[in-house]
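Support request from a user on the community tier.

User writes: "When I paste my C-alpha cells into the form, the page sometimes reloads and wipes my input. The last time it worked, I copied everything first. Here is what I submitted, just in case something in the input itself triggers the reload:"
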C-alpha cells in the first residue's frame, strides 16, 4: 500500500518534463450581467446546508467589471420563507471532465456564517449517492478564518472514516482580502491540491480499495457558491451581510 502511494505521489511531479497543459474550458467573466448560460446554470435550492438558501436570481449571482459575484444576503422576497438568499452556480449538464487541471482565481469575503466554496461533484452518481461517488473540495472557507480547507469525500473517508491513510484533507493559509489562485491537478492515480501554485496535498489512489477510496475515474462538474450558515460555519450574523465571493476567472486544462 505504501508503494502504491509513492507511485501516485510521483505522478504529481513527473521526472520528465510534462506535456504542456491545453485549456479546454474557461470563463473570464468579460460580459456584464447574467452568467453565461452556455457555461453555468443556477444550482437550485436543496436540503443540504450549502444549498438550503440558494436563490436563482441575478442579485445573488452576476457578472460585473470582469468578475463573477456570488452573494449572500438577507431575503427580500416576502413570498419566500428562507431567511437568507445565496448565490450558487454549477456546470452540470453543460461541462464535465475527467482528469486535468483546474485553476480558479477568487477573493473571499469575511463574515460570521460565511461559507464560500469552489468544488466538484460527479456528473452522474455512477457508484451511488453521496459520498460514494465522491466529492472534490478545491477550496472552502469559513467566517473570518485565515485558513482554508481542501478536502475529499468518499465512502472510504466518510462512511469508513479512514481520513489519514492516506490523508484526505488539508488546511492552508492564503492572502486574506486578495485574489488567490486555487488549483487541482487530477491524474488517474492521484489528486493534487494547490494554493497560489504551492502544492498543499497529494491524495493517491490505492488500487486494493477500489471505488470506495477512488471513485475519481468518472466525469465531474464544477460548482462555485457563497453559502451562509449551517452546522460547520455556525449561525449567520445579519449585520455582516451582504457577503460575497468574487471570481476573476475559471480555467480547465488537459494534456
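"...and here is what came back when it finally went through:"
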Amino acid at each position: 500500500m505504501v508503494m502504491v502511494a509513492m507511485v501516485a505521489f510521483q505522478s504529481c511531479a513527473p521526472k520528465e518534463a510534462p506535456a504542456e497543459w491545453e485549456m479546454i474550458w474557461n470563463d473570464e467573466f468579460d460580459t456584464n450581467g447574467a452568467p453565461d448560460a452556455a457555461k453555468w446554470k443556477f444550482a437550485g435550492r436543496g436540503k443540504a446546508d450549502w444549498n438550503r438558501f440558494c436563490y436563482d436570481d441575478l442579485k445573488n449571482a452576476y457578472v460585473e467589471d470582469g468578475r463573477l459575484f456570488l452573494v449572500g444576503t438577507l431575503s427580500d422576497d416576502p413570498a419566500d420563507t428562507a431567511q437568507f438568499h445565496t448565490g450558487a452556480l454549477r456546470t452540470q449538464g453543460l461541462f464535465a471532465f475527467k482528469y486535468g487541471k483546474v485553476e480558479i482565481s477568487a477573493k473571499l469575503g469575511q463574515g460570521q456564517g460565511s461559507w464560500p466554496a469552489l468544488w466538484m461533484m460527479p456528473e452522474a452518481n455512477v457508484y451511488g449517492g453521496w459520498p460514494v461517488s465522491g466529492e472534490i473540495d478545491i477550496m472552502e472557507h469559513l467566517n473570518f478564518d485565515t485558513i482554508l480547507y481542501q478536502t475529499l469525500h468518499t465512502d472510504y473517508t466518510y462512511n469508513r472514516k479512514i481520513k489519514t491513510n492516506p490523508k484526505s484533507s488539508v488546511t492552508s493559509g492564503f492572502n486574506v482580502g486578495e485574489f488567490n489562485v486555487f488549483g487541482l491537478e487530477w491524474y488517474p492515480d492521484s489528486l493534487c491540491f494547490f494554493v497560489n501554485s504551492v502544492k498543499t496535498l497529494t491524495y493517491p489512489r490505492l488500487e486494493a480499495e477500489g471505488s470506495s477510496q477512488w471513485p475519481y475515474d468518472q466525469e465531474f462538474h464544477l460548482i462555485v457558491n457563497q453559502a451562509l450558515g449551517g452546522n460547520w460555519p455556525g449561525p449567520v450574523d445579519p449585520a455582516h451581510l451582504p457577503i460575497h465571493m468574487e471570481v476573476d476567472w475559471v480555467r480547465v486544462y488537459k494534456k
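Agent notes: The reload is a front-end session timeout and is unrelated to the input. The longest strand covers residues 243-254. The two ends are 28 Å apart (CA to CA). Escalated to web team.
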